[in-house]
Structure formats: C-alpha cells, structure tokens
Specification:
Helix 4 packs antiparallel against helix 5, helix 5 packs across helix 6 (110-143) and helix 7 (149-183) runs antiparallel to helix 13. The radius of gyration is 31 Å and the shape is elongated. It has 335 residues and is an all-alpha fold. The protein has 13 helices and no strands. It has 2 domains: 11-143, no CATH class; 149-332. The protein binds zinc ion. The site of zinc ion (ZN) has 7 residues, from helix 13.
Length: 335
C-alpha cells in the first residue's frame, strides 16, 4: 500500500485529538486544550480568523462538524452527532451522558461502546476529515496560497473606490434626469433646460468613461462581498448601457471628449458639445431620447420608457454599493 504524503497527518493522531474533543463535547472544549494534529490541518487553518487558542478550538470544532456531515446517510452519522454533542438532546451534556446516548443509537451497551466502539467511530470520522484535508490541500496547491489580509483589504478598497465613483455619477445623473424630464412638461424657461441637457450628457460621458476604465482594469467583473450582489451590480450597469441612446461610435466620441477636456470639467465638455457637428449630433440624439418619455410624472413610470429605465437602474446600482460597502468597511475597520 502506498504511504500517505509525509505532510498529511496519521489517522491515529487525528483520532487522538478527536478523543480530546469528545471529552468536553463540541461547543464546550477548553480553550487550552492541546490539539497538536488538528492544528496543522489546512482545513482548520482556513477556518481560523486569527491565531488565538480559542480560535483554534472553534475552527477544529467546525471541521469536525463538517467531517460528520459528510457521513450523512450512513449509520455512523447520528452516532457521532450524539457523541460530540451536535444534537439538541446531547448538546452541552457530560461525556458520560453523550456516550450513553451514542451507545444506545449504535445498539451496544455503554461499557462495550467505551471500550471498543467509540474508537472505531472516531476512526471513521478521522477518515472523512483526512479525505477533506487532502482535497483542501490539492485545491490550495492549484490555487496557490491565499493573499494576506493587507492585500485583500487593498483590493477591496481599490474596487470600492471605483464603485463609489460610478455610483456617485449615476446618482447625479438620476437626479438631473428627473429634473430635466419635468422641464419638458412645464414652462421652465430655455436656460434651465439647456443646462440640464449639458449636465446629463456630461454625467453620461463620465459614466461611460468610468465603466470603460473599470473594464480595462478589472475585467468588468463587479465582484461584491455578497455573491448575489455581483449580479445585481452587473445587471444594473448593463441595463444603463443598454437603454442609453448612443451606439458604440457615439459612446467612443463621448469617452474621448471627457478624457480630453481639462480635469473632465463640465464647462469645457459643454463647449465641445456645442462646438462642432459631432457634438451637436450627440445633443440632438440625447434630446430626442429625453423627449421619448411620455410618462405621467406624478404616477408610476412606464415600463418601456428608456429614460426611466436608466433612472431606475442608476438607483439600483447605488443601492447595491451602499449596502455592500459597510460589509467591507466593518470587516477591515475602515473610515
Ligand atoms: Zn418615462
């Protein structure tokens, strides 16, 4: 039989640590308990948040619970759950009471269970932990070692700096769109309408520019702390892009315009817009798009109104970022 790789622990050493945990029961293990073998497992280290003794105990308990869960559907599953105190009836009980319940479940008397069966069950559990450990090591080998905390923190900060920039632009775009749509209904005077035309175009150009930069730097992957939020953010951005009126050529013109005006300022950008045929064509398209809204502004907007779809999706993106940011901020105690 082939020998296990030198760095994988021996089963009997895992069993030795498991016996130590059975003595106190999962959830009650003394933080000073010595767990020399469990402490070396990649599985346990991955569960640990810090380096404290209690941390090691809690992480080991979690790994044991996982190991037991992999036995679900087999007869040792329930016996081990009773023995370690993972059931409502044995949680927090003394070892003697847990052993009695486990013996009953295993169909033997407590004395026999203590002498023979317990060790056999612990070996079965040790095997399943061993299997999980070797899987974890293979995966770690393929993926390389995980980045350290400082690196992860820096990555999140970099990401959220971009997310916040996009969210802030979309928030302003949304507010100005809401305002400009009103100007088409009532007499608000020519000046304010032109101002809003310029400012909303400016926000769109900045949005297009930021998204392009984001795609270039981070591959366009809106990675968030919570998995469900990834899609939420991506769909919101995709729909804003889908419903705005410019084709690829127009979007390219706007991105170049914003990149070329000093500091990306509105004043210079507006001058460029009104200066030549291309800019005027953009303005014409934009105004046509704005006028396509026929919604009753006092009621729910139309489902197929494109300006209102952009307004909704801009808000959706803002909400995702606002909800996800505190998870990162609190985790890394930022700002
Ligand atoms: Zn509308």
């Amino acid at each position: 039989m082939a020998n296990p790789p030198a760095d994988l622990p021996r089963l009997k050493d895992i069993v030795f640590d498991l016996q130590r945990i059975v003595r106190d029961g999962v959830g009650s293990v003394d933080e000073e308990a010595s767990l020399p073998t469990l402490g070396t497992l990649v599985l346990v280290r991955q569960e640990m948040q810090g380096g404290g003794e209690l941390d090691l105990v809690v992480a080991s308990e979690r790994v044991i619970a996982r190991g037991i869960e992999t036995l679900e559907g087999s007869s040792p599953h329930e016996v081990l759950r009773l023995l370690f105190g993972l059931t409502a009836s044995t949680r927090g009980r003394l070892a003697k009471q847990r052993r009695k319940a486990a013996a009953e479940r295993a169909g033997s008397d407590p004395a026999t269970f203590n002498r023979h069966d317990e060790r056999r069950y612990l070996r079965i559990l040790a095997r399943s932990i061993y299997a999980l450990e070797s899987e974890a090591r293979l995966l770690a080998e393929r993926l390389g070692s995980p980045p350290d905390r400082a690196e992860i923190k820096a990555n999140w900060l970099g990401r959220f700096t971009r997310y916040h920039r996009v969210a802030a632009i979309l928030r302003q775009l949304r507010l100005d769109l809401l305002a400009v749509l009103v100007t088409y209904r009532k007499d608000h005077g020519e000046v304010s309408q032109v101002d809003y035309l310029d400012s909303t175009m400016w926000y769109v150009a900045r949005f297009l520019y930021e998204v392009e930069e984001f795609n270039r730097a981070l591959g366009g992957i809106w990675f968030m702390p919570e998995r469900a939020a990834d899609d939420e953010a991506k769909v919101a951005i995709d729909l804003v892009l889908w419903h705005q009126p410019f084709n690829e050529r127009g979007r390219s013109w706007l991105r170049i315009a914003i990149a070329q005006v000093p500091a990306g300022e509105l004043f210079d950008f507006a001058e460029r817009l009104h200066d030549g045929p291309d800019g005027n064509e953009m303005l014409g398209l934009w105004e046509q798009w704005l006028k396509s809204c026929r919604c009753d502004l006092e009621a729910e907007p139309d489902q197929d109104c494109r300006p209102h779809r952009v307004i909704d999706q801009a808000e959706r993106f803002d909400i995702v970022v606002e909800e996800q940011w505190p998870l990162v901020r609190e985790r890394y105690r930022l700002g």
